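Q: What structure does this chain adopt?
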Amino acid sequence: MSEYTLDTTGLLCPLPVIRTQDRARTLAPGDVLVVHCTDPGALNDIPAWCRINGHQVLETVDGDNEVKITLRIGAID
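A:
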């Protein structure tokens, strides 16, 4: 298991989710991906995408002008 970071700051919906999906496809099940966003919609969009695609949200942090979402990659079809 490895941990990776994805910077989607400055991108607006739907790009944070698309970039997260693209990055997740390159990772192995069990890997952890920390996504940094400035789009507040990502706080809902990325966890919804995770539920649909079998990934697990480990933590969400809504800080000053930045959202950080930590997820564990599930099985990729």
